[in-house]
Amino acid sequence: MRKALALLLVALAAGAAGWLAGSGAAGAGGVRLVRVEDSPVGAATAPLAAPPPLADGPVRGVILVVGDGMGLAQSAAARDRVLGPDGRFLFERFPVTGLVETHPAGGLITKSDAAATALASGAKTVNGRLGESPAGRALPTLLERARDAGLATGLVTTSAIVDATPAAFAAHVGSRYDYHDIAEQMVAAKIDLLAGGGGEKLAPRATGEGPLAEAAARGVAVVTDLAGLAAADRLPLWAVFPGSRLGEEPAHPDVGELAERALDLLPAEARRRGTGFFLMIEEEGVDTAGHARSFSRLAAAVARLDRAVAAAVRFAAADGATLILVVGDHSTGGLEIDHESTSGRLRVVWASSQHGGEPVPIYAYGPRSAALAFTGLHDNTEIHDLIAAALGLAPAPAPGTTP
Fold first, then answer.
1. Which of 143, 74, 9, 120 is nearest to 293 (CA)?
2. 3.40.720.10, 3.30.930.10, 3.90.226.10, 3.30.450.20: which CATH number matches 32-391?
């Protein structure tokens, strides 16, 4: 009996060690082990001033900032680490806050492809598809309809430009991993500004042909380094860098730098046309860090996203007719701030390395009536509808019908 009890205690101790070590494996009976991380609390920082209120009026431009994998716990924990509990990220000072449901068609837990399709098209789809209904019918997107209405359009990401979130705004494929078809469709989509990583996924074939060469043949200026991006003075422009973790490598721009250049170029093109613009900016690093269960990387990614928000706010405050939205597409990692956290030590717990199904936050700043529309609890498809209404775009046609 004593021997059996001793063996049981050893087994329990081993299980506890695995819990603290964060093995991530499922224990007996499917119990999921978690990962615990300790981190210093950020130095006390006074909250940033709220952006200046904008007069009510029409919206000429929309900047949609997507924090891939950013739920409330991710932003709150990152704030505690970077700014301290009394600090605030700039997007947290926006006058309007709401919540967004994220479930895909036929399920509870979304992946980035289905979530981005909902934001881009206003329709649910199953996990795995991009820009298509569950039956495989193409769904017109915000970017495509804005383009057809004469607006200037842009997609910016710290991931590969053919990754799920940017691709959902300009491509229609049965698998998010069909990078070849996605790239070809993005060339054909006539996007005014496309900036991000994934240069290795777009490498030319043995014949010398490839998406970048095809884009250049269509009159697109193609740059692949920081100097080229800084010198760019016209659209259409593709700025494509190697890798899919921009901002984590010093040689590559972060999302704040990409946002600055996008807001130098895209609104200028809109003014030249006498129209407005639609710009989607994605910080992928929050999701990547959540899957890796790395809190230091997650906090840095949220801080980078806030630098992009700051660039957007500077533009919108001067422009007066731009709506900024900051939203998570889903949460990642089952993150929580643990009860053992103190004023000097932040303890976070990762419940998984996968996506969660709880609502995510949305923050809005812009002309009053347009921003207030995002108050409350919305389905992710409704975010598309509200953006389209703000830009004055006609309702999207039903799947499979001619626009």
1. 74
2. 3.40.720.10
